[in-house]
Amino acid sequence: MIVTGAVLIYGTVDMPGWGDPDSPASRHVSPQYITEAMEKTATPNMVTAVLADYRGYDTLGETTVIFSAGMVCILLLRRKRNRHD
Amino acid sequence: MIDFIVSKYNYWIYIVLMMIGFYAMIGKRNLIKKIIGMNIFQTATILFYVSIGCKKGGDLPILEHAHGHAEHAVAVSAYINPLPHVLMLTAIVVMVATLGVALAIAIMIYRKYNTLEEDEILEAMK
Q1: What is the ipTM of this complex?
Q2: Is position A10 within any domain?
Q3: A28/chain B closest Cα distance in angstroms
Q4: pLDDT digits (tens, 9 = 90+) for A21-47
Q5: Which of A40, B22, B36, B44 could bridge to B17 as Cys pair (CB 3.0-4.6 Å)?
Q6: Which B residues 19-78 touch A at CB under 8 Å?
Q7: Within 13 Å of residue B90, how many CA atoms lie on the same side as its CB?
């Protein structure tokens, strides 16, 4: 565990600093989302625009995940009438 | 050196948090404590991603004066990165789903063995 933590801390040496506007995560697709979200989706909230418009299928799959998790909980917690043990 | 620490200490905090969750998942014998450790681990991941999306001087990713002043230019550096927030919204949902299923399985185990301690369960399975 300590070894894993040490390896992860060594990995942060190459990470961009906190609040760096030129970090790789902020340069690839997010400028397009920020500048074009309003005219393409007419939604001022960019998080909502990306979640529901650009990545709508992702959100659809997410609802499938919640649905299957809920079904699994119901199936596991249901008390069976004739239990064999 | 101090600049280096200031720009990286948020990652170190998340790594410490993640290792606490990892220790709880590996070292603890109680299944509920293992589930709590899994939750701490996932929360550390979410905090890590949200801190990647941060920009110094950036605002919330909601456009100001969006309706009415339609054709004013949007400065990219004025808003923080919306993408990690979206992905972590999905991750929170998956976290809640896994937590629910894990607790349901723990309830099933408790009904069958009347304990949540791992060694007692292994003893009863023999």
Answers
A1: 0.73
A2: no
A3: 10
A4: 777 777 777 777 777 777 777 777 888
A5: B44
A6: 19, 22-23, 26-27, 51-58, 61-63, 66-67, 70, 74, 76-77
A7: 21
